[in-house]
Inverse folding.
């Protein structure tokens, strides 16, 4: 371990949790963080910057009236989704909007910033003309408009949603050190969803013997379809109607979407219009030509539905440059398609030593969990990493470990440990480490 | 109990939880709700309505591209805050925007629909020119801009916010039966907040002996000020920077607001610029001429900071008219400034009999909790009520009980049981019952 090279950085060695400045979590829990450093130096632990001290206009004159739907400050205009792809010359094409995780905090993603990937554009559906049909191997086919679906017993749950293509660029080399975090990790978001359990509708229709899969189809012009195993459908799958308290937005599937917690996002079919119960998967375009991975033996891995345990540090990232030596909070998000996050470890020395981060509770199953740990940066180079472990005991692999099992021709389901390199001048870069 | 008068309403008597159609909660937990009624009649429990079956345009042509910040469907344009008051002829005046609770689900309120009450309008603050100062009875006065405040250890929590004036109209008679729910209950909302604990900043500054109160002041043109007891400040008070994942919106206090969980909303000072530590309350305009209640003995009740246990049914309400006899879900919200909601009871017969509703978990302290119970409406008149009990053992009072202690000259802190009358034709009205 390097010795601290400035007087402001003197801390008790027993407060260190791992190499290169990672601090004990009781630094947080006891609020002792600030005090400790203050006592050592007679100065505050966190740098104070002088800011404007004038009588600004807004302190002198009345402000504006409330809005029917409150907006963000004009000074936050840069916190938006990054868009890629889209419609060109009237042709349908895949388009995506990626969540700026490095600009957000907490675990709920504002609905307007929830990532989206669409293959045929966002339909402008009139809910009064939309219906959901359940048919196939059921005793009684039924259909529902949004208004009568709302009469059913509903549930509210927090779940993450992740595109299996999230992190795709990290299969490749060289790595662009200055990509913002949305490019590498922005196809994951978290929401509070309210809707009707699919099992309630299946109960009402009555399954026939031999029913094994449900083909879910959207009302978009490409009729995106995915096959859902019946066990999942009877477990926690829901028909979501509300997201973060209000009706789902068109980019997220208005007026209703299938929601398969912990499964790759593409299976949570948006603009849901048909659930066809059958004894086999449909082998649709989106589960054959897409959303499959080429394995080392040349075969395709299909129906890799459950998302793996994963985490990433969202602050600091390469969107910041550290201005001073001293104390920082390292924070990020962890999630797993197999249940709750049990533990997140953080390293400041590229994986040589690890310390447990504090997890923000309550921890929800199949939802993002925020982790935090104090870090004393002494000005030396550092490589910051996080490693998540879920309640099923799965450990987020290193990049090497991931490639060992999967080879390097895969496209989806990248979930290896991510590394941020901090340079001596305070700049931060993506690195493979 | 009335007998069911239609074949579709035959249910096993053991499934009934209380009078006038309230059903056992295992109806929900076992998903047996639908099946039971289906078996009895050979028909689905919930009415199915035929909706449009044509090939709508959105199924035929590609939709639109993703947006940088996704918007609501144009078909949801009516789900907005109701505005009252506001600036008139250049004068400052109180303005309010009320949350349409009857149009929302879950417990998170979208930030754009979070209620707001402002007394001097919404300031348009440039965060680079805003600072928070801590001074008075502290060993070391300090100030922070938003960027260095973000370097501190943060926490994320879900809390409700309620104006103590929420429900003010319910002190009066006669009652307008068709007011929408925002008029009687729309000054309460729930959010996931992220920020820095005030105790962290107090630790850093160091309290002097005898410090008992903190005067919090906003940067609005009226310098709204409230006095916060030091015990609260050292407990769970935070400086909130993010709401529901993104920076707080201007109507909610951008770039930073004080947040006193469970206290009347006005104490959670928006656009926070000064924390002055002292040995006594400041007796500001907003804790003397306003936000006090006239008691039966003619004296004013001041510093009634903790909000009482409260609940309201949000569906069905007078915004709906029941179209058919049959099964419905009754759902609503419950909250308490003193901790977690322990229990919510629902009555369909005006308080003669009560049944426990299902509470949606995890239950957060000082956050709204959603409750649900199935209800079989047989077409008879009904009065729907909810009654919340918190973990401190406090029980939401009837209107009579509330008046007995407080008299009828009060203005704030109305929290009595609320009643919805269902008429035989399915229309619903506010009533005092």
């Amino acid at each position: 371990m390097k010795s601290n090279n400035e007087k402001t950085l003197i801390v008790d060695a027993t407060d260190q949790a791992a190499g290169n400045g990672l601090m004990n979590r009781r630094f947080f829990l006891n609020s002792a963080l600030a005090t400790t450093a203050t006592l050592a130096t007679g100065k505050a632990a966190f740098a104070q910057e002088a800011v404007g001290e004038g009588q600004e206009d807004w302190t002198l004159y009345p402000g504006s009236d409330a809005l029917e739907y409150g907006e963000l400050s004009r000074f936050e205009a840069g916190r938006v989704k990054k868009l890629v792809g889209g419609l060109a010359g009237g042709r349908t094409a895949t388009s995506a909007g990626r969540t700026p995780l490095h600009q957000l905090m907490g675990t709920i993603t504002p609905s307007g910033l929830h990532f989206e990937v669409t293959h045929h554009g966002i339909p402008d559906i009139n809910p009064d003309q939309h219906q959901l049909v359940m048919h196939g191997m059921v005793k009684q086919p039924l259909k529902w408009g949004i208004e009568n679906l709302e009469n059913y017993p509903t549930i509210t749950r927090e779940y993450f949603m992740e595109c299996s293509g999230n992190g795709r660029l990290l299969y490749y080399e060289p790595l662009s050190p200055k990509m913002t975090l949305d490019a590498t990790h922005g196809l994951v978001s978290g929401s509070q969803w309210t809707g009707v359990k699919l099992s309630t509708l299946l109960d009402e229709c009555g399954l026939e013997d031999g029913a094994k899969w449900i083909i879910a189809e959207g009302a978009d012009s490409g009729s995106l379809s995915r096959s859902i195993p019946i066990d999942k459908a009877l477990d926690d799958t829901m028909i979501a109607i509300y997201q973060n308290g209000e009706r789902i937005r068109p980019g997220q599937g208005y007026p209703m979407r299938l929601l398969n917690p912990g499964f790759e996002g593409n299976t949570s079919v948006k603009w849901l219009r048909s659930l066809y119960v059958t004894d086999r998967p449909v082998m649709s375009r989106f589960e054959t030509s897409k959303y499959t991975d080429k394995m080392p033996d040349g075969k395709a891995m299909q129906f890799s539905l459950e998302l793996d345990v994963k985490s990433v540090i969202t602050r600091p990232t390469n969107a910041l440059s550290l201005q001073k030596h001293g104390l920082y909070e390292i924070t990020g998000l962890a999630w797993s398609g197999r249940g709750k996050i049990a533990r997140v470890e953080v390293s400041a020395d590229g994986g040589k030593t690890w310390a447990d981060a504090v997890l923000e509770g309550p921890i929800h199953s199949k939802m993002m969990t925020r982790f935090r740990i104090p870090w004393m940066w002494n000005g030396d180079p550092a490589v910051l990493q996080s490693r998540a472990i879920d309640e099923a005991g799965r450990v987020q692999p290193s990049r090497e470990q991931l490639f060992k099992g999967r080879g390097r021709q895969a496209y989806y389901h990248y979930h290896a440990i991510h590394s941020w390199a901090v340079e001596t001048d305070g700049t931060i870069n993506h690195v493979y480490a």
